[in-house]
Amino acid sequence: MEFRIAGTFTVSLAKLIDKEQTAMQITAFNQQLTPARPDR
Fold first, then answer.
1. pLDDT digit string (tens) for the chain, length 40 residues
2. What sign for the dihedral angle of Cα 34, 36, 38, 40?
3. Closest CA to 39 of 10, 29, 19, 1
């Protein structure tokens, strides 16, 4: 499976504090793995 992350996402991610960055990275990864149920 190929994952693609937009440059704008990484730029926006860099503006967040560490805790927020971690939460967003987990959410984005979950969204790519299970698009129908990103909360799982």
1. 676 778 888 899 999 999 999 999 898 888 888 877 656 5
2. negative
3. 29
How far is residue 12's CA from residue 9's CA, in Å, rounded to a whole number? 5
And the tokens for 23?
């939460």
Q: Would you say 31 and 2 are in contact if contact means Cβ atoms under 8 Å apart?
A: no
CB 35 within 8 A of CB 12: no
Q: 40 Cβ partners below 8 Å, 6+ apart? A: 30, 34
d(CA 4, CA 17): 23
Determine the pLDDT at residue 19.
Answer: 96
